[in-house]
């Protein structure tokens, strides 16, 4: 069948999408991150259903598969800052630190279509510090994917970083 992927030439050559480096002939594994590799994993599995997440190193987190829990507006995921609803989550066994299961599995490093450099998942556990997403301008105190190369000032909140392809055409 062949590949049917296509992209508009002006979109493909935008500075925030392509850094101008030609990758023809470069093996894909040289610039694509594997979410299962140790350097990109966000947690260590301690035992069945119990993890040690890099963002919460002092305590272990236990999976909670209960989906009929009462809605609590004050209980929010530390990564995406969205409320906890009928979601499978990981909760700390000693404090109120909570992550959606999907957020707990976010890779620590990723290559994203919205930026030419690799992005690193950053955590600021101070609830009174907020940052703005470069893509959507949303202000959040959740986790951010940031660029650590080339003097970039790129911050993507985990919601925007979860979008796999650019979705805005200009």
UniProtKB/TrEMBL annotation:
<feature type="domain" description="DC1">
    <location>
        <begin position="54"/>
        <end position="104"/>
    </location>
</feature>
<dbReference type="InterPro" id="IPR004146">
    <property type="entry name" value="DC1"/>
</dbReference>
<dbReference type="Pfam" id="PF03107">
    <property type="entry name" value="C1_2"/>
</dbReference>
<protein>
    <recommendedName>
        <fullName>DC1 domain-containing protein</fullName>
    </recommendedName>
</protein>
<feature type="domain" description="DC1">
    <location>
        <begin position="115"/>
        <end position="161"/>
    </location>
</feature>
<dbReference type="InterPro" id="IPR046349">
    <property type="entry name" value="C1-like_sf"/>
</dbReference>
<dbReference type="InterPro" id="IPR053192">
    <property type="entry name" value="Vacuole_Formation_Reg"/>
</dbReference>
<keyword id="KW-0677">Repeat</keyword>
């Amino acid at each position: 069948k062949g590949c049917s992927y296509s992209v508009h030439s002006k979109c493909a050559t935008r500075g925030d999408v392509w850094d101008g480096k030609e990758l023809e002939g470069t093996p894909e594994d040289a610039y694509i991150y594997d979410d299962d590799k140790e350097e990109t994993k966000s947690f260590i599995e301690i035992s069945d259903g119990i993890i040690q997440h890099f963002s919460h190193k002092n305590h272990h987190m236990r999976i909670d598969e209960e989906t009929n829990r009462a809605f609590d507006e004050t209980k929010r995921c530390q990564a995406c800052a969205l409320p906890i609803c009928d979601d499978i989550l990981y909760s700390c066994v000693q404090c109120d630190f909570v992550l959606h299961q999907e957020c707990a599995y976010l890779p620590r490093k990723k290559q994203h279509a919205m930026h030419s450099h690799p992005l690193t998942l950053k955590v600021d556990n101070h609830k009174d510090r907020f940052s703005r997403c470069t893509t959507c301008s949303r202000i959040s105190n959740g986790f951010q994917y940031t660029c650590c190369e080339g003097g970039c000032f790129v911050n993507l909140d985990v919601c925007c970083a979860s979008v796999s392809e650019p979705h805005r055409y200009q």
